[in-house]
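Following up on my earlier message about zinc ion. Here are the inputs again, as you asked, copied directly from the submission form:
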Amino acid sequence: MAEFSESLDALWSVQKHDAVIVRQREQLAKLERENQAEHAKVEAAKAALEERKSKLRKLQGEHKELEQELLRLDARVKQLEAQGTEAGMEAAAKQRNKIDELETGGLDLLTAVTIAEQEVQVAETELKQKQEIQAAKLKANADVAAAAQQLIEATEAARTTAAALVTPKLLAVYDEVNARNPGKALAKIAEGFCSACSGEINTQLAMQVRARKEILRCPHCTRILDA
Ligand SMILES: [Zn+2]
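Thanks, got it. Here's what our run produced:
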């Protein structure tokens, strides 16, 4: 039954490779999360810029309307003055008061437009910075991801070689347990306890495990046990 014992030895090698693959896949997932986070920052900066542009357009629109209203009132004043009557002059004076009020409001509006223009510029700069950071991050992550991908492929090849030395039955059990506990399907018995789940292993089972002659699993976590 030396064959099973060798099979178990080879299985530890398979697990070692699987652990590497799991770590690298986690690394890839982490890089992807980082890329998404950078993307989200850029999208937020774009939204902030659009919001400020929209505010600026609104203020510019209000200012344009106000200027048109002033032109209309100016024309009206000239018309009233042209009448040359006292009533016309009185009405013209009223209109001029209104023009003064509107012009004061117009100055406030111009100030608001200037501030809004500056805010748009700030948002444009922020967006550009975020995009530069994103580009650098994506490039750096792409390099790390390529290395991880390469390591995964090399490790998968080594895993295939090691797996060929494991009996199909043992490998099938391993694959099933490994699917639930990626890279951690094997456990040792340490002083009567499962090294993975710390569940107690009775003496009888521990003896069988030490013999290394058959597939034995932890009654608590179902991992494959080895001495
Ligand atoms: Zn266990």
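One observation from looking it over: The first strand starts at residue 186 and ends at 190. Hope that helps, and feel free to reply on this thread.
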